[in-house]
């Protein structure tokens, strides 16, 4: 199987998992839904580690890197789930999908020097996200009882926070992988995320339990989330690894497509233009 197909499987898995987050988050709240997802993904990743014969070597001097990666993962996904639950998905997803532009901006602050095409892609991605937010249909409704469960402005703010958190998470992961390895970094990060979220729930005096009726949904969602990362890792092994990253970066488009088909969310013509700009910019940034 070539890198493009692995990237496509990754995008389909991550995009579908994010779409399902709308239902689980609305049912039990973003934090409890995410806790269940982390439990399932930890089990899947642990099984993968065992089957792959991976042994985790702890480097205490750099342990803070996967720990930070895991903590940022918790923050990013909590905000994402909240944004998707608030809706519309077709508004939240493109804003969060713009995070690769911020990754490059962060890299510049750390000394990287993007070329002209990358700078153009950064500007295009951010402008596209602004267009999607600016021309959102404030009266949008869907077949499941309303696209938005709160003010549209709240969705924009939460999705923007998720975008920033995702960018920071990616930066932390990029610095942890050379030390721990790709699968090992994701595995440690997921367990840190699980512990971080459990601590947060306990501080809030909230129960982490998920109703039995939702475990099938949570199980599918968590498995797809873990599979998305595993497919991306598989496609990143070998020649033309960047192709997998480019295709996988379009997972937001999958989430939007599912929202359009299943929830019958509507996009204005200007929003469609913004979405296309966002994902064109993401494709350029992910390939360079």
Structure characterization notes:
By secondary structure, the protein is mainly α. It contains 12 helices and no strands. The protein is globular, with a radius of gyration of 18 Å.
Q: What is this structure's SSE topology?
A:
Elements: H1 3-28, H2 30-51, H3 64-86, H4 89-97, H5 99-109, H6 116-134, H7 152-180, H8 182-203, H9 215-235, H10 241-248, H11 251-263, H12 269-286
Distance between the termini: 22 Å
Number of domains: 1
What is the number of helices? 12
Give me the count of strands: 0
- Main sheet summary: none
Q: What helical percentage do the residues reach? A: over 70%
Radius of gyration: 18 Å
**Structural class determined from secondary elements:** mainly alpha
Shape: globular
The fraction of residues assigned to DSSP E strands is under 5%
Q: SSE string, helix = H, strand = E?
A: HHHHHHHHHHHH
Which consecutive residue ranges, at least 5 long each, have pLDDT under 50? 139-147
pLDDT average, as an integer? 82
């Amino acid at each position: 199987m070539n890198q493009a197909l692995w990237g496509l499987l990754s995008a389909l898995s991550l995009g579908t998992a994010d779409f399902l987050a709308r239902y689980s988050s609305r049912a039990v709240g973003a934090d409890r839904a995410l806790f269940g997802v982390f439990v399932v993904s930890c089990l899947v990743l642990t099984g993968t580690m065992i089957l792959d014969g991976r042994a985790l070597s702890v480097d205490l001097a750099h342990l803070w890197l996967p720990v930070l990666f895991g903590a940022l993962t918790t923050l990013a996904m909590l905000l994402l789930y909240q944004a998707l639950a608030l809706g519309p998905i077709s508004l939240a997803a493109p804003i969060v999908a713009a995070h690769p532009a911020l990754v490059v901006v962060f890299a510049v602050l750390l000394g990287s020097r993007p070329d002209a095409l990358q700078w153009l892609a950064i500007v295009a991605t951010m402008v596209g996200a602004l267009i999607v937010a600016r021309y959102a249909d404030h009266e949008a409704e869907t077949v499941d009882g309303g696209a938005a469960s709160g003010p549209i402005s709240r969705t924009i703010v939460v999705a923007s926070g998720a975008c920033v958190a995702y960018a920071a998470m990616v930066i932390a992961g990029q610095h942890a992988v050379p030390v721990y390895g790709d699968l090992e970094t994701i595995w440690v990060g997921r367990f840190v995320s699980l512990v971080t979220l459990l601590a947060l729930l306990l501080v809030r005096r909230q129960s982490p339990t998920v109703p039995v009726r939702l475990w099938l949904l949570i199980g599918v969602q968590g498995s797809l989330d873990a599979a998305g990362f595993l497919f991306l890792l598989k496609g990143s092994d070998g020649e033309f690894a960047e192709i997998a990253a480019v295709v996988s970066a379009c997972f937001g488009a999958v989430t939007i497509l599912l929202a359009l088909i299943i929830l019958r969310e509507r996009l204005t013509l200007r929003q469609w233009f913004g979405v296309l700009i966002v994902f064109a910019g993401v494709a350029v940034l992910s390939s360079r």
